[in-house]
Amino acid sequence: MEFEFSKRISGVKASTIREILKMMNDPQIISFGGGNPASETFPIKKLKEISDDIFNNDPNSILEYGISEGDIDFKQEAIKFLSRNEKIVKEYDQIMVTSGSQQIMDFMAKCLCDEGDLVVCENPSFLGALNAFKSNGAKLIGIEMEDDGIDLVKLEEVLNQPKKPKFIYLIPNFQNPTGITTSYAKRKAIYALAKKYQVLILEDNPYGDLRFKNEAIPSIKSLDDEGLVVYAASFSKIIAPGMRVAVMIGHRDFMAKCTVAKQTSDVHTNAWAQKVMAHFLHETDMNEHLKKLQMVYKNKCELMLREMKKNFSKDCTWTIPDGGMFIWITLPKRIDMPSFVKKAIEHKVAIVPGNAFLDDDSKACQSFRMNFSMPSDQQIIKGVAILGQLMAE
Protein backbone atom coordinates (compact mmCIF):
# COMPACT_ATOMS: atom_id res chain seq x y z
CA MET A 1 0.00 0.00 0.00
CA GLU A 2 1.17 3.51 -0.77
CA PHE A 3 0.66 5.76 2.25
CA GLU A 4 -0.52 9.34 1.84
CA PHE A 5 1.03 11.29 4.68
CA SER A 6 -0.07 14.74 5.82
CA LYS A 7 1.68 17.77 4.37
CA ARG A 8 2.96 18.67 7.83
CA ILE A 9 4.82 15.43 8.47
CA SER A 10 5.84 14.93 4.82
CA GLY A 11 7.94 18.07 5.02
CA VAL A 12 9.89 16.86 8.06
CA LYS A 13 12.98 14.75 7.48
CA ALA A 14 14.29 12.08 9.82
CA SER A 15 16.72 13.57 12.33
CA THR A 16 20.30 13.48 11.05
CA ILE A 17 21.48 13.00 14.62
CA ARG A 18 19.10 10.07 15.24
CA GLU A 19 20.43 8.45 12.06
CA ILE A 20 24.01 8.94 13.22
CA LEU A 21 23.18 7.47 16.64
CA LYS A 22 22.17 4.24 14.90
CA MET A 23 25.83 3.91 13.94
CA MET A 24 26.72 3.63 17.63
CA ASN A 25 25.74 -0.03 17.49
CA ASP A 26 29.05 -0.49 15.67
CA PRO A 27 31.68 -0.66 18.45
CA GLN A 28 34.33 0.56 16.01
CA ILE A 29 32.57 3.90 15.49
CA ILE A 30 33.88 6.94 17.36
CA SER A 31 30.82 9.15 17.68
CA PHE A 32 31.21 12.91 18.02
CA GLY A 33 27.77 13.21 16.44
CA GLY A 34 25.29 12.61 19.24
CA GLY A 35 23.97 14.85 21.96
CA ASN A 36 24.18 12.29 24.73
CA PRO A 37 25.40 13.19 28.21
CA ALA A 38 28.36 11.36 29.72
CA SER A 39 26.99 7.99 30.84
CA GLU A 40 29.59 7.74 33.61
CA THR A 41 27.74 10.56 35.38
CA PHE A 42 24.44 8.66 35.67
CA PRO A 43 23.57 8.09 39.38
CA ILE A 44 22.62 4.48 38.73
CA LYS A 45 22.94 3.13 42.28
CA LYS A 46 20.92 5.96 43.83
CA LEU A 47 18.17 5.78 41.21
CA LYS A 48 17.87 2.01 41.71
CA GLU A 49 17.65 2.40 45.49
CA ILE A 50 14.90 5.00 45.16
CA SER A 51 12.98 2.94 42.61
CA ASP A 52 13.17 -0.21 44.73
CA ASP A 53 11.97 1.70 47.79
CA ILE A 54 8.96 3.10 45.93
CA PHE A 55 8.01 -0.32 44.54
CA ASN A 56 8.32 -1.85 48.01
CA ASN A 57 6.41 0.83 49.92
CA ASP A 58 4.15 2.79 47.59
CA PRO A 59 3.76 0.97 44.25
CA ASN A 60 0.30 2.33 43.45
CA SER A 61 1.69 5.87 43.30
CA ILE A 62 3.65 4.96 40.17
CA LEU A 63 1.36 2.35 38.62
CA GLU A 64 -1.89 4.35 38.51
CA TYR A 65 -2.74 7.20 36.16
CA GLY A 66 -1.42 10.60 37.19
CA ILE A 67 -2.53 14.17 36.54
CA SER A 68 -1.58 15.91 33.31
CA GLU A 69 0.07 18.89 35.03
CA GLY A 70 2.55 16.59 36.74
CA ASP A 71 3.21 14.84 40.04
CA ILE A 72 2.87 17.37 42.87
CA ASP A 73 5.91 16.01 44.75
CA PHE A 74 8.11 16.33 41.70
CA LYS A 75 6.81 19.81 40.88
CA GLN A 76 7.59 20.91 44.43
CA GLU A 77 11.15 19.57 44.23
CA ALA A 78 11.64 20.97 40.73
CA ILE A 79 10.56 24.43 41.86
CA LYS A 80 12.99 24.29 44.79
CA PHE A 81 15.81 23.16 42.51
CA LEU A 82 15.13 25.80 39.86
CA SER A 83 14.85 28.52 42.52
CA ARG A 84 18.37 27.98 43.88
CA ASN A 85 19.78 31.03 42.12
CA GLU A 86 16.83 32.94 40.65
CA LYS A 87 13.06 33.09 40.94
CA ILE A 88 11.58 31.96 37.65
CA VAL A 89 8.49 30.15 38.98
CA LYS A 90 6.28 30.94 41.97
CA GLU A 91 3.03 29.00 41.66
CA TYR A 92 2.18 25.41 40.75
CA ASP A 93 -0.10 26.54 37.92
CA GLN A 94 2.90 28.11 36.16
CA ILE A 95 4.71 24.78 35.73
CA MET A 96 3.88 21.57 33.88
CA VAL A 97 5.87 18.35 33.75
CA THR A 98 6.61 17.10 30.23
CA SER A 99 8.08 13.99 28.66
CA GLY A 100 11.42 15.63 27.95
CA SER A 101 12.07 19.09 26.52
CA GLN A 102 11.25 17.85 23.03
CA GLN A 103 7.60 17.74 24.06
CA ILE A 104 7.82 21.40 25.10
CA MET A 105 8.97 22.32 21.60
CA ASP A 106 6.02 20.41 20.17
CA PHE A 107 3.47 21.97 22.54
CA MET A 108 4.79 25.48 21.92
CA ALA A 109 4.20 25.22 18.18
CA LYS A 110 1.04 23.15 18.51
CA CYS A 111 -0.59 25.75 20.75
CA LEU A 112 0.57 28.83 18.82
CA CYS A 113 1.16 28.02 15.16
CA ASP A 114 -1.18 27.62 12.25
CA GLU A 115 0.11 26.62 8.83
CA GLY A 116 2.62 29.20 7.59
CA ASP A 117 3.05 31.06 10.87
CA LEU A 118 6.55 32.35 11.57
CA VAL A 119 8.95 31.16 14.26
CA VAL A 120 12.28 32.95 14.78
CA CYS A 121 15.27 30.82 15.72
CA GLU A 122 19.01 31.14 16.03
CA ASN A 123 20.80 29.97 12.91
CA PRO A 124 22.10 27.32 13.47
CA SER A 125 19.89 25.82 16.17
CA PHE A 126 18.75 22.58 17.82
CA LEU A 127 17.51 20.24 15.11
CA GLY A 128 14.88 18.58 17.32
CA ALA A 129 13.20 21.91 17.99
CA LEU A 130 13.31 22.96 14.33
CA ASN A 131 11.62 19.71 13.31
CA ALA A 132 8.98 20.09 16.03
CA PHE A 133 8.12 23.58 14.82
CA LYS A 134 8.01 22.54 11.17
CA SER A 135 5.86 19.50 11.91
CA ASN A 136 3.26 21.87 13.35
CA GLY A 137 3.18 24.01 10.22
CA ALA A 138 5.60 26.77 11.22
CA LYS A 139 7.90 28.54 8.79
CA LEU A 140 11.36 29.08 10.28
CA ILE A 141 13.16 32.42 10.14
CA GLY A 142 16.80 31.82 11.06
CA ILE A 143 18.91 34.71 12.34
CA GLU A 144 22.68 34.43 12.33
CA MET A 145 24.65 33.99 15.54
CA GLU A 146 27.37 36.37 16.71
CA ASP A 147 30.01 35.58 19.33
CA ASP A 148 27.66 36.68 22.13
CA GLY A 149 24.33 35.46 20.75
CA ILE A 150 21.77 36.24 18.08
CA ASP A 151 22.19 39.30 15.80
CA LEU A 152 19.98 41.96 17.43
CA VAL A 153 19.75 44.21 14.38
CA LYS A 154 18.45 41.40 12.20
CA LEU A 155 16.16 40.21 15.00
CA GLU A 156 14.45 43.60 15.19
CA GLU A 157 14.14 43.74 11.41
CA VAL A 158 12.19 40.48 11.51
CA LEU A 159 10.05 41.51 14.49
CA ASN A 160 9.19 44.81 12.78
CA GLN A 161 7.67 43.13 9.70
CA PRO A 162 3.89 43.26 9.11
CA LYS A 163 3.58 39.52 9.76
CA LYS A 164 4.73 39.11 13.34
CA PRO A 165 6.41 35.85 14.44
CA LYS A 166 4.53 33.70 16.94
CA PHE A 167 7.62 33.29 19.11
CA ILE A 168 11.42 33.47 19.30
CA TYR A 169 13.27 30.25 20.11
CA LEU A 170 16.61 30.66 21.94
CA ILE A 171 19.20 28.50 23.73
CA PRO A 172 21.13 31.16 25.70
CA ASN A 173 23.53 28.83 27.55
CA PHE A 174 26.16 26.86 25.59
CA GLN A 175 23.93 26.79 22.56
CA ASN A 176 23.34 23.63 20.57
CA PRO A 177 25.16 23.31 18.19
CA THR A 178 27.60 26.23 18.54
CA GLY A 179 28.41 26.23 22.26
CA ILE A 180 27.90 30.02 22.27
CA THR A 181 26.56 31.73 25.40
CA THR A 182 24.32 34.78 25.00
CA SER A 183 25.70 37.71 27.01
CA TYR A 184 23.64 39.33 29.77
CA ALA A 185 23.50 42.60 27.84
CA LYS A 186 22.11 40.79 24.83
CA ARG A 187 19.60 38.84 26.95
CA LYS A 188 18.23 42.12 28.30
CA ALA A 189 18.10 43.57 24.79
CA ILE A 190 16.27 40.50 23.45
CA TYR A 191 13.68 40.73 26.21
CA ALA A 192 13.27 44.46 25.56
CA LEU A 193 12.53 43.70 21.90
CA ALA A 194 10.04 41.00 22.91
CA LYS A 195 8.23 43.55 25.10
CA LYS A 196 8.34 46.22 22.40
CA TYR A 197 6.81 43.95 19.76
CA GLN A 198 4.81 41.73 22.16
CA VAL A 199 6.32 38.47 20.94
CA LEU A 200 6.75 35.38 23.11
CA ILE A 201 10.17 33.85 23.80
CA LEU A 202 10.82 30.13 24.26
CA GLU A 203 13.97 29.97 26.38
CA ASP A 204 15.44 26.48 26.22
CA ASN A 205 17.97 25.74 28.96
CA PRO A 206 19.03 22.08 28.88
CA TYR A 207 22.73 22.80 29.47
CA GLY A 208 22.76 25.67 31.99
CA ASP A 209 23.83 23.51 34.94
CA LEU A 210 26.79 22.15 32.96
CA ARG A 211 28.76 25.39 33.29
CA PHE A 212 32.42 24.70 34.06
CA LYS A 213 33.92 28.13 33.33
CA ASN A 214 33.06 31.75 34.24
CA GLU A 215 30.05 32.99 36.20
CA ALA A 216 26.44 32.02 35.54
CA ILE A 217 24.32 34.58 33.67
CA PRO A 218 20.71 35.32 34.71
CA SER A 219 18.09 33.75 32.49
CA ILE A 220 15.82 35.77 30.22
CA LYS A 221 12.94 34.32 32.23
CA SER A 222 14.30 36.05 35.35
CA LEU A 223 13.74 39.39 33.55
CA ASP A 224 10.17 38.53 32.60
CA ASP A 225 7.61 40.84 34.19
CA GLU A 226 4.90 40.40 31.53
CA GLY A 227 4.64 36.63 31.12
CA LEU A 228 6.29 36.72 27.69
CA VAL A 229 8.89 34.01 28.36
CA VAL A 230 8.19 30.28 28.32
CA TYR A 231 11.06 28.42 29.98
CA ALA A 232 12.13 24.85 29.24
CA ALA A 233 14.19 23.06 31.90
CA SER A 234 15.39 19.51 31.31
CA PHE A 235 16.72 16.93 33.76
CA SER A 236 18.10 14.76 30.95
CA LYS A 237 21.61 16.21 30.97
CA ILE A 238 22.06 16.37 34.76
CA ILE A 239 20.41 13.09 35.84
CA ALA A 240 19.49 10.73 32.99
CA PRO A 241 17.93 11.30 29.53
CA GLY A 242 16.12 7.97 29.36
CA MET A 243 13.75 9.05 32.11
CA ARG A 244 12.29 11.72 29.78
CA VAL A 245 11.42 14.32 32.40
CA ALA A 246 11.42 18.09 31.90
CA VAL A 247 9.37 21.06 33.08
CA MET A 248 7.68 23.82 31.10
CA ILE A 249 7.22 27.17 32.88
CA GLY A 250 5.07 30.04 31.71
CA HIS A 251 2.12 32.33 32.37
CA ARG A 252 -0.72 30.37 34.00
CA ASP A 253 -3.14 31.12 31.15
CA PHE A 254 -0.67 29.84 28.57
CA MET A 255 0.12 26.77 30.66
CA ALA A 256 -3.59 25.95 30.95
CA LYS A 257 -3.80 25.61 27.17
CA CYS A 258 -0.57 23.57 27.09
CA THR A 259 -2.17 21.22 29.62
CA VAL A 260 -4.92 20.56 27.08
CA ALA A 261 -2.22 19.74 24.52
CA LYS A 262 -0.67 17.38 27.08
CA GLN A 263 -4.00 15.63 27.63
CA THR A 264 -4.38 14.99 23.91
CA SER A 265 -0.76 13.82 23.57
CA ASP A 266 0.31 11.36 26.27
CA VAL A 267 -2.07 12.26 29.15
CA HIS A 268 0.78 12.58 31.64
CA THR A 269 4.52 12.04 31.91
CA ASN A 270 5.70 8.66 33.22
CA ALA A 271 4.61 8.42 36.87
CA TRP A 272 7.56 6.24 37.92
CA ALA A 273 10.11 8.65 36.44
CA GLN A 274 8.50 11.67 38.11
CA LYS A 275 8.37 10.02 41.53
CA VAL A 276 11.96 8.77 41.29
CA MET A 277 13.11 12.24 40.21
CA ALA A 278 11.24 13.83 43.13
CA HIS A 279 12.99 11.58 45.64
CA PHE A 280 16.35 12.07 43.95
CA LEU A 281 16.12 15.86 44.08
CA HIS A 282 14.95 15.74 47.71
CA GLU A 283 17.62 13.33 48.95
CA THR A 284 20.63 14.49 46.92
CA ASP A 285 23.01 17.37 47.51
CA MET A 286 22.48 18.74 44.01
CA ASN A 287 25.30 21.27 44.27
CA GLU A 288 27.78 18.46 44.91
CA HIS A 289 26.17 16.31 42.22
CA LEU A 290 26.51 19.11 39.68
CA LYS A 291 30.11 19.83 40.65
CA LYS A 292 31.03 16.24 39.78
CA LEU A 293 29.30 16.53 36.41
CA GLN A 294 30.92 19.86 35.66
CA MET A 295 34.38 18.45 36.36
CA VAL A 296 33.79 15.53 33.99
CA TYR A 297 32.61 17.87 31.22
CA LYS A 298 35.40 20.36 31.86
CA ASN A 299 38.06 17.66 31.52
CA LYS A 300 36.52 16.22 28.35
CA CYS A 301 36.14 19.64 26.73
CA GLU A 302 39.69 20.69 27.56
CA LEU A 303 41.04 17.41 26.22
CA MET A 304 39.17 17.81 22.94
CA LEU A 305 40.31 21.43 22.56
CA ARG A 306 43.95 20.44 23.21
CA GLU A 307 43.79 17.64 20.66
CA MET A 308 42.11 19.90 18.11
CA LYS A 309 44.81 22.53 18.52
CA LYS A 310 47.44 19.83 18.06
CA ASN A 311 45.85 18.06 15.07
CA PHE A 312 43.48 20.35 13.17
CA SER A 313 44.41 22.49 10.21
CA LYS A 314 45.74 25.96 11.11
CA ASP A 315 43.10 27.61 8.91
CA CYS A 316 40.31 25.85 10.80
CA THR A 317 38.43 27.77 13.55
CA TRP A 318 36.22 26.70 16.45
CA THR A 319 34.23 27.97 19.41
CA ILE A 320 35.46 27.59 23.00
CA PRO A 321 32.42 26.91 25.21
CA ASP A 322 32.06 27.80 28.90
CA GLY A 323 30.00 24.67 29.47
CA GLY A 324 27.57 22.31 27.83
CA MET A 325 28.46 19.52 25.42
CA PHE A 326 29.38 20.95 22.02
CA ILE A 327 32.11 22.62 19.97
CA TRP A 328 31.37 24.21 16.57
CA ILE A 329 34.15 23.81 14.02
CA THR A 330 34.41 25.79 10.77
CA LEU A 331 36.51 24.42 7.93
CA PRO A 332 38.36 26.52 5.33
CA LYS A 333 36.64 26.77 1.96
CA ARG A 334 39.31 24.59 0.35
CA ILE A 335 37.71 21.58 2.10
CA ASP A 336 34.46 20.25 0.66
CA MET A 337 32.17 19.65 3.66
CA PRO A 338 30.01 16.79 2.26
CA SER A 339 33.14 14.91 1.16
CA PHE A 340 34.78 15.53 4.53
CA VAL A 341 31.81 14.12 6.45
CA LYS A 342 31.68 11.09 4.14
CA LYS A 343 35.41 10.41 4.57
CA ALA A 344 35.10 10.78 8.34
CA ILE A 345 32.38 8.12 8.45
CA GLU A 346 34.47 5.87 6.19
CA HIS A 347 37.24 6.22 8.80
CA LYS A 348 34.75 5.31 11.57
CA VAL A 349 34.33 8.83 12.97
CA ALA A 350 30.80 10.27 13.10
CA ILE A 351 30.23 14.04 13.02
CA VAL A 352 27.13 16.11 12.21
CA PRO A 353 27.39 18.52 9.25
CA GLY A 354 26.36 22.06 10.09
CA ASN A 355 23.62 22.37 7.48
CA ALA A 356 21.53 19.91 9.54
CA PHE A 357 21.07 22.68 12.13
CA LEU A 358 20.04 25.47 9.74
CA ASP A 359 16.54 26.83 9.15
CA ASP A 360 17.00 25.51 5.61
CA ASP A 361 19.23 22.44 5.50
CA SER A 362 19.72 22.78 1.74
CA LYS A 363 22.00 25.75 2.40
CA ALA A 364 25.76 25.24 2.18
CA CYS A 365 27.62 25.25 5.50
CA GLN A 366 31.35 24.95 6.19
CA SER A 367 30.86 24.04 9.86
CA PHE A 368 30.18 20.87 11.80
CA ARG A 369 29.31 20.01 15.40
CA MET A 370 31.41 17.88 17.73
CA ASN A 371 30.15 16.45 21.00
CA PHE A 372 32.72 15.96 23.78
CA SER A 373 30.49 14.54 26.52
CA MET A 374 29.81 11.10 25.10
CA PRO A 375 33.14 9.71 23.78
CA SER A 376 35.84 8.38 26.08
CA ASP A 377 39.19 10.15 26.45
CA GLN A 378 40.82 7.54 24.21
CA GLN A 379 38.15 8.01 21.56
CA ILE A 380 38.57 11.80 21.67
CA ILE A 381 42.33 11.50 21.13
CA LYS A 382 42.01 8.96 18.32
CA GLY A 383 38.99 10.55 16.62
CA VAL A 384 40.39 14.08 16.58
CA ALA A 385 43.66 12.78 15.13
CA ILE A 386 41.75 11.06 12.31
CA LEU A 387 39.80 14.23 11.52
CA GLY A 388 43.06 16.20 11.51
CA GLN A 389 44.56 13.79 9.00
CA LEU A 390 41.51 14.16 6.74
CA MET A 391 41.83 17.96 6.86
CA ALA A 392 45.43 17.68 5.70
CA GLU A 393 44.61 15.54 2.67
From TrEMBL:
Listed Gene3D superfamilies: Aspartate Aminotransferase, domain 1 (3.90.1150.10), Type I PLP-dependent aspartate aminotransferase-like (Major domain) (3.40.640.10)
Protein name: PLP-dependent aminotransferase family protein
Record family assignment: Belongs to the class-I pyridoxal-phosphate-dependent aminotransferase family.
GO molecular function: pyridoxal phosphate binding; transaminase activity
InterPro entries xref list: Aminotransferase_I/II_large, Class-I_PLP-dep_aminotransf, PyrdxlP-dep_Trfase, PyrdxlP-dep_Trfase_major, PyrdxlP-dep_Trfase_small
Keyword field contains rRNA-binding: no
Pfam family membership, one: Aminotran_1_2
Aminotransferase class I/classII large domain ranges (all copies): 28-377
Keyword tags: Aminotransferase, Pyridoxal phosphate, Transferase
GO-annotated biological processes: alpha-amino acid metabolic process
PANTHER family: AMINOTRANSFERASE, KYNURENINE_ALPHA-AMINOADIPATE AMINOTRANSFERASE, MITOCHONDRIAL
Cofactor: pyridoxal 5'-phosphate
Assembly and oligomerization: Homodimer.
